[in-house]
Structures are given as structure tokens and as C-alpha cells.
Design a protein that fits this description.
By secondary structure, the chain is an alpha+beta fold. It has helices at 31-35, 39-45, 77-87, 162-168, 190-193, 222-229, and strands spanning 2-7, 14-19, 22-25, 51-53, 58-60, 69-73, 98-102, 107-108, 113-116, 124-125, 128-134, 150-157, 160-161, 181-188, 200-205, 208-214, 240-242, 264-269, 273-281. It folds into two domains: 2-60, no CATH class; 69-281, Fumarylacetoacetate hydrolase, domain 2 (Alpha-Beta Complex), CATH 3.90.850. Helices cover 15% and strands 34% of the residues. Strands 1, 2, 3, 4, 5, 6, 7, 8, 11, 12, 14 and 17 form a twelve-stranded mixed β-sheet that branches. A five-stranded mixed β-sheet has the order 9-19-18-15-16, with no helix packed on it. The termini are far apart. The mean pLDDT is 95.
Length: 282
């Protein structure tokens, strides 16, 4: 199943279930509140819902979590290598996932134009990532139990202001500017995705492929990420975890390739879909 948040002209955003070219409306205020329901309660919420054509609506980010988006850095070996090479430092692989967060105000919708400011940064970069959406409140989850707490999977573009990232000496500021976390276009449930660590992942900039890898190349699997993050910390329904990006990002290229005004970005993940956004920099 594929879940979206959508808006008809002049109406409020509401959750829905994609069925072919149609959306089956869900009777819940938001998709996050729907996710928090027990499975039997979820089914009851879309039993009587209306249908609307998918191409007649505007999609929002499928879910807007109650707090920051959790992210994992340096989770693909080749990306870790290119980052170390570009920074002129020795490669040191983490022994546990490197977590950071993006502010919820950074979240943007699929197909949205990302309004970025040149006065804030001259080095906006792209990062295609698989994201996990948590489906139940949980803590101290084992790797074996991790699949049971997943509601579904979606795509994220972790747009990053590299100059701010360097200047601040940590990742939060450079990764939390408004409009730098597009998510979507929908959340796909685990039975459709299958093994989350066996998915082709691509990023295209103006049609040219810049990143191409497989989630099997992650250093830490999805289950390991959930297990480590949940140690002593409660995860909530609707929480989003971005699992890291592969090699090919702009700052590590020779010469570096940063986003420019009018650039069209596509994150494509096998069995999930394509997240599209255009950049406006003024």
C-alpha cells in the first residue's frame, strides 16, 4: 500500500491511500495520527472514505513527524571515502551509526520548489536517501524486532548547506534550513518494499545521474539503525529516519558541483518511486 497526504484546491491537507490512479481518503486529521492507531482502527478509518484522482491534487510531505527528522551520516563506505578524501583527512569508519537531525521546519513537499537563499549559503548540495517511517511507539528494539515497528518507507533528499556545515563544526545548522528536507512522494508499506537493504537508489540532477548505489551497500542496516537509535530512547509513530546517502554528492566531486537556481532534482528508489523538486536560489 502507498499512503499520501494531499490537498484539493481550497481544502485542508488530509491523508489518503493510493489505489491505482485514485486516492482513497482516510478519515483522520493527519497521516501521523492515522499511523498512531492500532491496525484494526486504521482499517476502519478508510472504509467509508471518498475517492479523488491522484492527478487532481497537490501532494504534501506524506508525514510530518512531531519532532526532528533523524538522520544517519557516513552510512555508505564509498561516501565515507569520498568525504574523507575531499576533506583531506584519514578515513575512520564509525563503529555505531552517526546520528544527527533536521528540524521539522526543513520538511518540504514532493514537487515543491525549494526556495533557498544565496545570502545564507553558496554551497547547497544534494543527498538521496531511503527513509524509514516508524509505526508504533517503541524503545530498546532489537535488530530482530526492528521490522515489526516499521510503518513504511519513503524517499528523502537531505539538501545540505556545506559551507554552514563546515563553519559550525557540526551538522545540524547546515542541514536544517527551511525547505531542505523534501520527503515523498508517498510512504510504501513493508510488504510492497520487501528487503529495505536491497533497493536500487539513484539521484539525477537536470536528468544527469549523479548518484547510483544499492541500499545493500549501507554500513549499518535499517534494523541496526532502528536498534541503535531506540536504545534508551522512545521512538514515536510517524518518526522519520533517513538512512544515509551513497557516493556522488556535489561537494566531493572534482570540481565540486553545488545546486544552482532552476536545477531539477530527482531521487529514485526502487519499489518506492521518484521524489522530484526544483531549486530556486535568490
Amino acid at each position: 500500500m502507498k499512503f499520501v497526504s494531499y490537498r484539493m484546491p481550497g481544502a485542508q491537507t488530509r491523508p489518503g491511500l493510493v489505489e491505482g490512479a485514485m486516492i482513497h481518503a482516510i478519515e483522520a486529521p493527519t497521516l501521523r495520527e492515522y499511523i498512531a492507531l492500532a491496525p484494526a482502527q486504521r482499517l476502519a478509518r478508510h472504509a467509508q472514505g471518498d475517492f479523488v484522482a491522484l492527478d487532481a491534487v497537490a501532494l504534501d510531505a506524506p508525514v510530518r513527524p512531531a519532532r526532528n527528522v533523524f538522520c544517519v551520516g557516513r552510512n555508505y563506505l564509498e561516501h565515507a571515502k569520498e568525504g574523507a578524501r575531499a576533506a583531506g583527512r584519514e578515513l575512520r569508519l564509525p563503529t555505531v551509526p552517526t546520528f544527527f537531525t533536521k528540524a521539522p521546519t526543513a520538511i518540504a513537499a514532493p514537487n515543491a520548489t525549494l526556495d533557498l537563499r544565496a545570502a545564507i549559503s553558496r554551497e547547497y548540495d544534494f543527498e538521496a536517501e531511503l527513509a524509514v517511517v516508524i509505526g508504533t511507539e517503541c524503545r530498546d528494539v532489537s535488530e530482530r524486532e526492528a521490522p515489526d515497528v516499521v510503518f513504511g518507507y519513503t524517499a528523502i533528499n537531505d539538501v545540505t548547506a556545506r559551507d554552514l556545515q563546515r563553519a559550525h563544526g557540526q551538522w545540524f545548522k547546515g542541514k536544517s534550513l527551511d525547505g531542505t528536507c523534501p520527503i515523498g512522494p508517498w510512504i510504501v508499506t513493508p510488504e510492497e518494499v520487501g528487503d529495505p537493504n536491497a533497493l536500487e537508489l539513484r539521484f539525477r540532477l537536470n536528468g544527469a545521474e549523479k548518484q547510483h548505489s544499492n541500499t545493500s551497500n549501507m554500513i549499518f542496516s535499517v534494523a541496526r539503525i532502528i536498534a541503535e537509535l531506540s536504545k534508551g530512547m522512545t521512538l514515536l509513530p510517524g518518526d522519520v529516519i533517513a538512512t544515509g546517502t551513497p557516493e556522488g554528492v556535489g561537494f566531493a566531486r572534482t570540481p565540486p558541483e553545488f545546486l544552482a537556481d532552476g536545477d531539477a532534482m530527482e531521487v529514485e528508489i526502487e519499489r518506492i518511486g521518484i521524489l522530484r523538486n526544483v531549486v530556486r536560489i535568490d
